[in-house]
TrEMBL record:
Residues the entry annotates as binding L-threonine: T29, H61, R116, A136, S175
Annotated protein name in UniProt: Threonylcarbamoyl-AMP synthase
Organism: Devosia soli
Function recorded in the entry: Required for the formation of a threonylcarbamoyl group on adenosine at position 37 (t(6)A37) in tRNAs that read codons beginning with adenine.
Single Gene Ontology MF annotation: tRNA binding
Gene Ontology biological process terms in this record: regulation of translational fidelity; tRNA processing
Alphabetically ordered keywords of this record: ATP-binding, Cytoplasm, Nucleotide-binding, Nucleotidyltransferase, Transferase, tRNA processing
Pfam families, sorted: Sua5_C, Sua5_yciO_yrdC
Length: 313
């Protein structure tokens, strides 16, 4: 591989992103580890690079409200929040449009997405240059502190990730995440925009998401993409069940998908949420899932499968 450019320009960073590479970029909150959110392989690299054992839904960054509205449906209240606080450290959870174009792995298979327009000239220039939504969690190895300088990002990843340097971040903590539920605003994650500021601007109380509530931030709570079908793990299918295979699959004449016939974990991760959706859509009552190796990305795949299989009410 070529050595990484030291002084990355916005155009060079955009070209890397469009070719499926990761680029760390500055925002007003923290540095983000960015990928083209429409490219499943690129988004997977985020998890591999961070060493993240779980597929959390990621925040998707947009250049403006128009790009956001091409991806998701904004109620009048959601639109008013964006109009008041964007660009800025507020991520808004909104229902995806049918043809949104985002990789399922970016939203962890949910039918909503957390969107934000960052208030940083370099981030906005990058979003305009790529003209793509960019998925970006904080640019640190999993379990380490969120970086607020380009130097911290370089050190964190041992110089392996190209970094677009935009100076130190102003806020230093991640964005506030809210969802809109009818007439009410629910805060899912406290962050750089104080809840009181939203309350003052909108003249209403912003409630906190209750544990296990209908609307929740999946990264913070156990609840996650839950198929309608029940799920049995590490098993072979019974007649009448749907089957999610991995690697060499037994002959089975029911509904079946194979995460990766060759046993490739990256391919399996890319297919995971899409195939769960597809099997669920067959109306099967039970989805049997073959064992998936626990190494590498297998850890995240198994984490998500266990969550999907967990008892729920
Ligand atoms: O300040 C920030 O928000 C930084 C910078 C880089 O912009 N980004 C960031 O992204 O913190 P990330 O991807 O680490 O945040 C992901 C969190 C998830 O753990 C989850 O809590 C919430 O965003 N989230 C994402 N999609 C969601 C959804 N559809 N519904 C509810 N919560 C969601
Ligand atoms: Mg983080």
């Amino acid at each position: 591989m070529n050595p990484l450019p030291q002084d990355l320009s916005v155009d060079a960073a955009a070209a890397l992103l469009l070719s499926g590479r990761l680029v760390a970029f500055p925002t007003e909150t923290v540095y983000g580890l960015g990928a083209d959110a429409t490219n499943a392989d690129a988004v997977l690299s985020i998890y591999e690079t961070k060493g993240r054992p779980r597929f959390n839904p990621l925040i998707v960054h947009v250049a403006d409200l128009a790009m956001a509205e091409r991806l998701a449906e904004f109620s009048p209240l959601a639109r008013a929040l964006a109009a008041r606080f964007w660009p800025g450290p507020l991520s808004i959870v909104v229902p995806l449009r049918t043809w949104h174009g985002l990789a399922d792995i970016a939203t962890a298979g949910l039918d909503t997405v957390a969107l934000r327009m960052p208030d940083h000239p370099v981030a906005l220039a990058l979003l305009r240059a790529t003209d793509r939504p960019l998925a970006a969690p904080s640019a640190n190895p999993s379990g380490k502190l969120s970086p607020t300088t380009a130097e911290q990002v370089r050190r964190g990843f041992g110089g392996k990730v190209p970094v677009l340097d935009g100076g130190p971040c102003q806020a230093g903590v991640e964005s506030t995440i809210v969802a809109v539920d009818g007439d009410s605003i629910v805060q899912l994650r406290a962050g750089a925009l104080a809840r009181q500021e939203i309350e003052t601007a909108f003249g209403r109380t912003v409630s906190l998401a209750a544990q296990g509530a209908k609307i929740s931030a999946p990264g913070m709570l156990l609840s996650h993409y839950a198929p309608n079908a029940a799920i049995r793990l590490d098993t072979a299918p019974q007649p009448g069940e749907a089957f999610l295979a991995f690697g060499q699959a037994p002959a089975f004449d029911g509904e079946m998908r194979n995460l990766s016939p060759s046993g490739d974990l990256r391919e399996a991760a890319r297919n995971l949420f899409t195939m769960l959706h597809e099997l669920d859509a067959t109306g099967a009552k039970m989805i049997a899932v073959a064992p998936v190796a626990e190494t590498g990305l297998g850890e995240a795949i198994n984490d998500r499968l266990r969550r999907a299989a967990a008892p729920r009410d």
